[in-house]
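Late entry, evening session. Most of the bench is empty. Finally got around to the prediction I had been postponing all week. Sequence below, unchanged from the version circulated by S.P.
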Amino acid sequence: MSEQPTIPRCAGCGWSWSLPIDEALDVVADVPARVGTALDRAGVAALRSPADGVWSPSSYAWHLVDVLRIGTERLWTIALDPVSGLPSWDQDDLAAVRRYADLSSIAVLRALRDAAATWLGTAGSVPLDASAEHDEEGPMTAADVIRRCAHEAQHHLLDIERALR
């Protein structure tokens, strides 16, 4: 998924890049419960079974944990050490290294709640216009990081729901 929004709305999930920050925060606040509800509807086998060409629901949930953890780290960097900049990361490489498919589809909900709580606390404490240089995208403000993480949360919740169908 692209770091930099290039269109007003995401074609995959309808995300609006102009969404007010307080609403973006609400999206992340709601995602652990919404992911939990989606995963509860599936049988254990379905949680770890990917459909062709997509991750399993459990893998998408673990990806959201990493999105929020990395988002938190980016916000800390913007607030505390913006000169260091914000490095890119590859979601597929991280998924392979962390072996998402082998991770617990039960523990992921605890990890997601914790990651969301830490992210929300951090997002609420960093000035929205504070920024750091992203190594590929250029200047990135705290507001940009917040919207990107919230978009990932909304988008991948839909991916989880699609994978469960």
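Two things to note before I forget:
The longest strand covers residues 131-134.
The chain has one domain: 21-164.
Will write this up properly tomorrow.
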